């Protein structure tokens, strides 16, 4: 039950991304950090259970964000690749975003939607491609310049996406300075109303407080704690002149985690990286 909001038309930023990752709180995960990629370094968190990542960006500005569909195992087939590889494969690619997006083989994965872009490309607004194996059109360029996506298709947004997109637009317009913009994005990602009781009611809540859901691990059985694990804001600043390079900043903060007793507690840690985008 992840959610992401994207803007490519801000006067100061070629890209603004605000995202929540919702997952079982006990799922093994590595926090946001620089990693050695096949082609170049990239910064991302890592899913230590299935591999790949849900959100990442390379040093040169290639970025991707993933959301999943929750479906019965039979809907995905018997042999599927980790959906986290959809982002990590793009971060390692040397193809254009259009060529890579249209070359994805949707049938190799369980239900997904992924946004792919190149924040350093010369187009204004920056090009974003959408790929999904649950949409009528599996891959296409996103025409909207400010939009949101959750665990439905791009053209069938859940109620929380519609509400969050409006709040995201207000945060972009009203922020005076970068810290105010980031704070505004945190506020966009924070509403947990109405309090979700199951996956269906999570369609209306942007942030997911700890909720007991049936475990995906058949060896465990029973219920496990599920909720918003981290919130992330990604900014790519426009270069002020042709002689300068764009710069990027990414901030990730913990929202909910498990303590040593296996009970959910509020996260307190925050991680941040900033760099100049180089081709």
UniProtKB/TrEMBL annotation:
State the taxonomy lineage. Eukaryota, Fungi, Dikarya, Basidiomycota, Ustilaginomycotina
Which Pfam families does the annotation name?
TANGO2
Q: Name one GO cellular component term.
A: Golgi apparatus
GO annotation (BP), single:
protein secretion
Q: Which InterPro entries match?
A: TANGO2
Name of the protein in question: DUF833-domain-containing protein
PANTHER family noted in UniProt: SER/THR-RICH PROTEIN T10 IN DGCR REGION (PTHR17985), TRANSPORT AND GOLGI ORGANIZATION PROTEIN 2 HOMOLOG (PTHR17985:SF8)
**Which species is listed as the source?**
Tilletiopsis washingtonensis
